[in-house]
Amino acid sequence: MKLEKLSNGRFIKTSIIVLAVISIFGVIFINKSKAKYRVTQSIQIVSGEVNYKVADLNVLAIYKQKSKENTNEENYESISDVPTSGYQLNTTKSYCTKPSTNDTKITGDIVYDGKSISVNNITEKGTKCYLYFDINNEISSEERFKNLGLTLGKGTPNFSKTACSSGCGETTNGVYTAQDDFGTSYYFRGTVSNNWVKFGKVGNSDIYWRIVRINGNGTIRLIYSGTGTAAATGDGTQLKTLIFNSLRTSAMSVKYLNSAIQQDLDYWYDSNLKSYANKIDGATGFCNDVDYGTASGSDQYFKPYDRIETNHTPSLKCELNNLYTTSGGTKGNQQLTNPIGLISADEVNYAGGVSSGGNSSYYLYTNQEYWTLSPAHFDGLARMFFIYSDGEIMSGGMAWGDVNHAEGVRPVINLKADTTFTGHGTSIDPYILSGN
To answer: Residue 9: what pLDDT?
Structure first.
């Protein structure tokens, strides 16, 4: 494991060279109170010439969490080396001190990417840093994919065509990959029957979901598919029909925050899922891409329209201001009260739906109309993408897509990355969260 010192000085060459020096030269451990310190003062790097020296950071104390229950001081033990796996840096608890500030704690200058520690903006000799590492049982998207025993599809799907079993587009069924804001995402596409999850209850009835994708951070995105039994189609696959927003003559009525549908989903979450909050992730978020795309006459299109309708190039990436997350994450706008949203039109396109025709074979077809979270266009009325009863991705017209027109509501949540399952993902043997 390497300790890197980043600076704006003219001597910086590479962080990797610093690793070599710290690993090879003069690493001394000193026992003092409960910490083991690494002295790195005045270490020189030789690579044909002396091109860098670390003379500022001279004491480092490293601690790791003993159990995951809490982050109290007594729950940490001193260690000699930065852990290489199984832990994550507690950026809130870790800090540095500088003599010139009377050893006042300074946070925000320490970065851990899972492979290296970087201490930024060190300009003063005698700086001391204290690093706290928390237990991390999270599973990466790649590990999740392997653990679930899924099969990766071949080739790259054509997103202008539907994905189905045969005869209606192209037979791209299974799991494929795309990049999202967190890494490699594994998404389900086409006619699949191994993405069922049973999680939570409404009253005494189990809630059934379909896995949309394994997000790039290892969390799992689910879309609601009814209660009681694992129904793939029918009115029971959605909570209700509801308007998206009451005001339809403003282009910004396509925003999710404080919309009628968000308020209703918050209420449903509080009533039915809040007791499972320790299983649900709030940092991954939901994309409500309200950025303007092209315009035609008096019509203003939003970027999802350009991607889905015009270019057939869906994306799982989202501008951070449009990525609705709860507080405490590292990305997104952190404006949600509860970690619940809707599916995006891009995700439906990845799953096998298109804007140019129906598809009754892919797993998001329910024979019902329901909302997405993606704005389509503004033509005097604010319109959202929604899924038509034949499985087509619709962008509005006449009353359709108008934010004040009632469509079905299918909640979407993300399960935490440390979630483990039993079961095989079928409708009769769905994945069940361990300990649920």
So the answer is: 42
- Which pair of tokens denotes residue 100? 């010139």
Q: How far is CA 338 from CA 220, 301, 412, in A?
A: 16, 29, 11
| Model pTM score | 0.75
Contact between 378 and 248 (Cβ < 8 Å): no
Question: How many whole angstroms separate alpha carbon 395 and alpha carbon 355?
Answer: 8
Interacting residues of 267 by C-beta distance below 8 A, sequence separation 6+:
none
Amino acid, single-letter form, for residue 156: T
* Long-range Cβ contact pairs of 324-327 (< 8 A, separation 24 or more): 324/256, 324/257, 324/285, 324/286, 324/287, 324/288, 325/282, 325/283, 325/284, 325/285, 326/282, 326/283, 327/282
Q: Residue 260 — φ and ψ, nearest 5°? A: -60, -40
Beta bridge partners of 78: 63
Bridge partners (DSSP) listed for residue 178? 185
In the Cβ-directed half-sphere of 250, how many Cα atoms lie within 13 Å? 9
112-141 tens-digit pLDDT: 655 566 666 666 777 788 888 888 778 899
Domain boundaries, the chain: 2-135, 141-433
Looking from the CA of 419 toward its CB, the CA atoms found within 13 Å total 30
CB of 367 closer than 8 Å to CB of 234:
yes
